[in-house]
């Protein structure tokens, strides 16, 4: 391709060239009065060429976001153990600023009553600023579409330069699993114990992978309302060298599994009944007061025995599992307290890590990804 000028758009001397030392990026210089239009056109060209575009001689917009990293490239930059460590470092970093996220309803609930949502989640620290924009449509899976879609845009906090455009669903899955991994480490969840994953979607997959890779899990039970999805996760887990099986019911698996993950759309309770005395549960599906995955009596039992920890202060008004059980969420300790040493699991009995998601985890992912970009 060769573009020497685009007269109709008001661009003067717009051209492409390969820039030395940019990894084959395409450039445009000499742009006249329609710089904004040039940016839009070059962004579209970036998608076609699958290459970053660098701009020179533009007073306002120096650099478009790099070509977005697809899911595999994003995942490669976010190994679970390293991301868990980055989350721990972020939680003691005084420069971190995380305002409340915006969660907006979209469209109409589907036939099962599940509503689509739009999330806007900014955060910053002394080095990195980022914003995650994603949508969550629970009913998409039934139509072969991803439930979570969107991007994470990262900036250099010193220069303001856009540095990375990450695959939003991959960031969401891996940072959530890494936060659960960190909680498992700090809450003394049994190392290498059998794991039950309830929900075989993206989050179920990520949590199984994180605990296999970084918490020694070698036995996996999977239960899902979709038998095909459960079997798919089991088949993949076997390629990791794990003894994996489909659980006909949650009740069948609970006596065998000290580690339990609930990662469902949280439209109905999926965890009830008797837990093992050494059980550690991470519930990640519910993120509004109206959503819940765990029966209220189980939540109250967890609070009275081993204890409950929340992923962030925002969860105190978002964690439907806790709020619907009548537990005082304002009194519950946070993951940050585990990391700082202000709180520790000291009593025996089953415990719960309740995660609603927090933009700080996305900031940790952006910090880690930018180290290799």
Write the layout of secondary structure elements.
Elements: E1 26-28, H1 35-49, E2 53-55, H2 71-76, H3 80-91, E3 102-105, E4 117-124, E5 128-136, E6 148-156, E7 162-167, H4 168-186, E8 195-198, H5 202-214, E9 219-223, H6 227-239, E10 243-246, H7 250-253, E11 259-262, E12 280-283, H8 296-304, E13 307-310, H9 320-324, H10 335-340, E14 351-354, H11 359-370
Parallel strand pairs: 1-2, 8-9, 8-11, 9-10, 11-12, 12-14, 13-14
Antiparallel strand pairs: 3-4, 4-5, 5-6, 6-7
Helix pairs in contact: 3-4, 3-11, 4-5, 4-11
Task: Sum up the structure in keywords.
373 residues; five-stranded antiparallel beta sheet; 19% strand; globular; disordered N terminus
Describe, in plain words, how this protein is organized in 3D.
The structure is a single chain. The protein is of the alpha/beta class and 373 residues long. The chain has 11 helices and 14 strands. Helix 3 packs across helix 4 (168-186), helix 3 crosses helix 11 (359-370) and helix 4 crosses helix 5 (202-214). The radius of gyration is 23 Å and the shape is globular. The chain starts with 25 loop residues before the first strand and ends with a helix.
């Amino acid at each position: 391709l060769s573009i020497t000028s685009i007269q109709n758009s008001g661009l003067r001397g717009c051209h492409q060239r390969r820039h030395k030392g940019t990894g084959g990026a395409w450039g445009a210089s000499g742009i006249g009065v329609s710089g904004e239009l040039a940016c839009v056109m070059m962004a579209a060209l970036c998608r076609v060429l699958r290459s970053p575009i660098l701009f020179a001689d533009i007073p306002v917009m120096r650099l478009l976001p790099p070509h977005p990293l697809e899911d595999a490239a994003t995942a490669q930059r976010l190994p679970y153990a390293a991301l868990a460590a980055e989350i721990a470092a972020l939680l003691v970093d005084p420069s971190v600023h995380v305002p409340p996220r915006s969660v907006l309803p979209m469209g109409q609930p589907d036939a099962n009553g599940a509503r689509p949502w739009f999330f806007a989640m900014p955060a910053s620290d002394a080095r990195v600023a980022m914003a995650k924009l994603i949508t969550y449509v629970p009913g998409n899976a039934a139509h072969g579409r991803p439930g979570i879609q969107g991007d994470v845009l990262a900036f250099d906090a010193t220069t303001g330069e856009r540095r990375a455009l990450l695959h939003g669903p991959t960031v969401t899955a891996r940072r959530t699993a890494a936060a659960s991994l960190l909680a498992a480490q700090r809450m003394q969840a049994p190392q290498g114990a059998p794991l039950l994953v309830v929900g075989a979607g993206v989050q179920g997959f990520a949590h199984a992978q994180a605990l296999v890779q970084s918490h020694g899990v070698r036995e996996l039970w999977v239960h899902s309302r979709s038998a095909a999805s459960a079997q798919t996760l089991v088949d993949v887990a076997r390629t990791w060298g794990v003894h994996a099986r489909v659980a006909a019911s949650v009740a069948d698996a609970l006596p065998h599994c000290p580690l339990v993950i609930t990662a469902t759309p949280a439209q109905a309770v999926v965890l009830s009944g008797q837990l093992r005395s050494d059980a550690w549960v991470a519930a990640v599906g519910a993120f509004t007061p109206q959503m819940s995955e765990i029966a209220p009596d189980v939540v109250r039992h967890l609070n009275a025995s081993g204890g409950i920890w929340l992923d962030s202060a925002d969860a105190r008004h978002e964690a439907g599992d806790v709020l619907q059980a009548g537990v005082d969420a304002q009194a519950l300790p946070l993951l940050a307290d585990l990391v700082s040493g202000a709180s520790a699991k000291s009593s025996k009995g089953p415990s719960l890590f309740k995660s609603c998601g927090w933009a700080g985890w996305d900031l940790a992912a952006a910090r880690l990804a930018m180290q290799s970009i």
